[in-house]
Specification:
Layout: H1 9-17, H2 31-35, H3 44-48, H4 51-60, H5 68-71, H6 79-83, H7 90-102, H8 112-121, E1 150-153, H9 156-160, H10 162-177, E2 182-183, H11 194-198, H12 202-219, E3 223-226, H13 229-238, E4 247-250, H14 251-260, E5 273-276, H15 290-297, E6 303-305, H16 334-344, E7 349-352, H17 355-367, E8 375-378, H18 379-385
Parallel strand pairs: 1-2, 1-3, 3-4, 5-6, 5-7, 7-8
Helix pairs in contact: 1-7, 10-18, 14-15, 16-17
Length: about 375
């Protein structure tokens, strides 16, 4: 006989008070579960995680949602939320449910050093704060000043991860080529806090955001360019709650605008079939779909290939919501489906515009041993190579 569980309205109310204001809107139709990318792969996490059931456990205040393979499995990709017929803010509900456990001191083992680094160093990559700007050495990157139009905010990943540093350098090359007035404050910045908030540490997020807002406002920042869609989301959606009002664009948005205005062109020919992977946080979360495609099509010789799951239906790479630091066995990775999709469409290059996606897709490509037939590139790298 199944164990009888007691409904806890106190726990339900606590979850709601933590930010899950739409939790009780859910009518348990199950569409969220059927759309979830976890349904596309096998494995223990796939078997344990069911976003509809998780919402129901929260509604009833029942135990079970706090189990690690349930609570911290969601990649916050937004596929379920964007298609919910009741407009339930599912990601806010997940974040709030995480708040209730993280606030009580529970955090999965693999995330403890990550969050510890954010507390100690202001970034999740265990890099010393004083080394945040080392990647700029020899590049003569301008410092932001009162007469600079844009602040270029480079995400923590591209400050510390050697592979991702190439993205930041390529973006700088493109901004210079287009004559954009920009500068950096990299050495003084902290992590944007987007993933920290999604993981449920609201107190730490507010500390990071408050520090950055104070820095930006003190320096007279009005406009920000981000290299990462996750930073874009934080600055556009999260920071205004704390008084941080800025005009924020992803680098692809700005370059796309300059392309249309005739201020940016590409002369280098690239005879390749190129598929574009829409990052969840650039596409579904920020509705940026056209500009990356326009930029890629502006490169002479490029044949743009659309993948079967594109734009609003794009397949998540599994890097959001803290999943970038979670280990998934070969055969259980969303990114592998993406690589197979690109190979099936005979793409030579799979391009994306997010540091997290690059890490996840390159790992998937290597795991499937497809690196000989498919190259994974960040869009800024391809555009820079095209001159």
């Amino acid at each position: 006989m199944d164990e009888i569980k007691n409904v806890s309205l106190e726990m339900r109310d606590y979850i709601v008070s933590s930010g899950a204001e739409t939790l009780n809107w859910c009518m348990q139709c199950g569409l969220c579960t059927s759309l979830c990318p976890w349904r596309l792969v096998p494995g223990e996490v796939s078997e344990a995680f069911n976003i509809r059931k998780m919402q129901r456990l929260g509604q009833l205040g029942l135990e079970g949602f706090e189990e690690e393979e349930v609570l911290f499995a969601c990649a916050t990709c937004g596929m379920c939320q964007n298609n919910c017929p009741r407009k339930v803010e599912i990601i806010d509900n997940v974040r709030s449910m995480r708040n209730t456990t993280v606030g009580a001191g529970f955090l999965p083992g693999h995330l403890r050093p990550i969050m510890g680094s954010v507390h100690a160093n202001g970034n999740p990559w265990s890099g010393a704060q004083e080394k945040r700007a080392e990647w700029q050495e020899g590049m003569d990157v301008p410092a932001f000043s009162a007469d600079t139009e844009y602040l270029l905010f480079v995400c923590c990943t591209s400050c510390y991860d050697p592979r991702s540093q190439k993205i930041a350098k390529s973006v700088i090359d493109l901004l210079r080529k287009a004559g954009v007035s920009f500068g950096v404050l990299t050495a003084e910045e902290n992590c944007c806090g987007e993933t920290v908030r999604k993981l449920g540490d609201e107190e730490l997020f507010q500390k990071l955001a408050g520090s950055n807002i104070k820095l930006f406002q003190g320096k007279g920042v009005k406009k920000i360019i981000t290299t990462s869609p996750h930073c874009l989301f934080a600055f556009k959606e999260d920071y205004p709650e704390l008084g941080g009002e800025f005009e924020v664009v992803h680098y692809s948005e700005l370059l796309g605008s300059l392309l249309r205005d005739g201020k940016l062109t590409f002369s280098g020919e690239l005879q390749k079939r190129v598929a574009f992977h829409d990052p969840c946080y650039l596409g579904r979360h920020n509705q940026v779909y056209d500009q990356p495609r326009e930029l890629l099509q502006a490169v002479p010789g490029v044949e743009l290939v659309e993948l079967s799951r594109a734009r609003g239906k794009s397949l998540c790479c599994a890097g959001g919501g803290g999943r970038i630091w979670a280990e998934a066995p070969v055969g259980e990775r969303f990114g592998e489906l993406r690589i197979a999709d690109a190979v099936e469409n005979k793409a030579d290059i799979l391009v994306t515009a997010c540091p997290y996606c690059i890490i996840m897709l390159e790992d998937a490509c290597l795991g499937l041993e497809k690196q000989e037939v498919l190259q994974v590139m960040e869009m800024s790298e391809l555009l820079t190579a095209a001159g």
